[in-house]
Amino acid sequence: MFACLLFAGVLSSKAFADGARDRTQFGRSITIAPGDEANDVTCFACSVRVRGHVMGDVTTFGGSIVVEDDGQIAGDTTSFGGDVRLDKGVKVAGDITVFGGRLRRDAAAVVSGDVTAFSGMGWLFLVFGLPLVILGAFVALVIWLVRRLKRPAIPVAA
Length: 158
Prior knowledge:
By secondary structure, the chain is an alpha/beta fold. The chain has 2 domains: 21-120, no CATH class; 121-153. It contains 2 helices and 16 strands. It has helices at residues 2-20, 122-150, and strands spanning 23-26, 30-32, 37-38, 41-44, 48-50, 53-54, 58-61, 65-67, 72-73, 77-80, 84-86, 91-92, 96-99, 103-105, 110-111, 115-118. It starts with a helix and ends in an 8-residue tail after the last helix. The relative contact order is 0.09.
């Protein structure tokens, strides 16, 4: 019994140790300095600058990703509504996806995976804005129908 508890404790502490190397921010940019390492990096309404080594994925929502000074990303690089810039000598082992932003890539940057770029803000409206417009129209239709059905009937004089 004690061995099982000890084993579970060791496994959970290992999971927390790896989770401690994840970096997630909202509204405050993240910098991975030269010689620094991180697992997964996620940024909401902020940017990520990688000069060190990211062993997992880098994802931004409403922010840019800049990989410079021999920075390395072992996983995927994804930016929604922001640009991705890859300088000379950087390495990205996974895929790069830029949605609603621009990809600026030096010819000497190494990307092992697929590169997909949907440039321009029109894509963001198509994916996020159009469903909200349709949902709003549906809610307006339901409200109109409920109000119409709840109106009292007015008798017609003969």
